[in-house]
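Hi,

Apologies if this is the wrong queue. I'm a grad student, and the batch job for DUF3000 domain-containing protein from Actinomycetospora aeridis produced an output file that my downstream script rejects. I'm not sure whether the problem is my script or the file. Here is the sequence I used:
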Amino acid sequence: MTAPTTHPETFRRAVDSLSELETRAEIELRTMRPPQRLAPYSAAWSAEVVAGPMPPGTGEIDDADVVVTGRLVLLHDPEGQDAWDGTLRVVTFVRAELDPEHAGDPMLPEVAWSWLTGALEDSGAAWTALGGTVTQTASVRFGDISGPTHANDLELRASWTPTEEVLTAHGDAFAGVLAIAAGLPPEGVTTLGARRAGRSG
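Support response: The file is valid. Your script probably expects a header line. Output copied below for reference.
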């Protein structure tokens, strides 16, 4: 994604830095239609994490292999907004499947929030005005619909104001949260089976 040259330079620089983000093989980022009413300028990417790397050259993800989904949205208001304390705002959403034995863990929201704060700190991102929510949901499927009868999910919603225009570190932090939520091992380490959210903090 490249922002039009008619857009502010601050926004274009931020979009370019996120568009050039390099992620590990299990994470697939794609551009998507951004929200239209939150700010004068916006860009957005969808994210999916698969249980293992995509087969080379396929370009397709099997829904059955997707263990984590997410969205990364960049907002820009040249005049700023009071709640932002700046002119740029990063908005993220991550949804991960939970193992049944971890679905009722009362500490899980705090653990999930620490994934984000830890990822931001580890990436070296500069930010302010961080806020968000962590929600645990349970659903039961009926009738002719695919998937397990009972499902438990963790949803992490967060936004913050970057204090820099090159947002590579912020994109790295988002990718880091996706990897942790999916239970992926450190890059270069191979395990016998992929873990999912709730396995560890």
